[in-house]
Amino acid sequence: MLGWALTFFIIAIVAAVFGFGGIAGAATGIAKIIFFIFIVLLVLSLISNALRGKSPKI
């Protein structure tokens, strides 16, 4: 998912360099949304992994 955010960010930079303001703004917005979804899922994954823990094998 982080790869998609970086892809849209690069598209936004290239579009801005060539003067396509609308496309650059849209790609930047999409990249921000995907990045924040990635961060939320990462935090949820870390919390769930910490709560589950490892049970000792006897």
Q: Layout of helices and strands, plus pairs?
A:
Layout (H helix, E strand, L loop, with lengths): L1 H16 L3 H32 L6
Helix pairs in contact: 1-2
Structural commentary:
Helices cover 83% and strands 0% of the residues. The protein has 58 residues and is mainly alpha-helical. The longest helix is centred in the middle third of the chain and has 32 residues, at 21-52. The termini are far apart.
Instruction: Please count the beta strands (DSSP E, at least 2 residues each).
Output: 0
Could you give a short account of the major beta sheet? none
The structure class reads mainly alpha
Q: Any low-confidence stretches, pLDDT <50, length ≥5?
A: none
Q: Termini separation (Å)?
A: 38 Å
SSE pattern: HH
Structure characteristics:
single chain, 58 residues, mainly alpha, 83% helix, 0% strand, rod-shaped
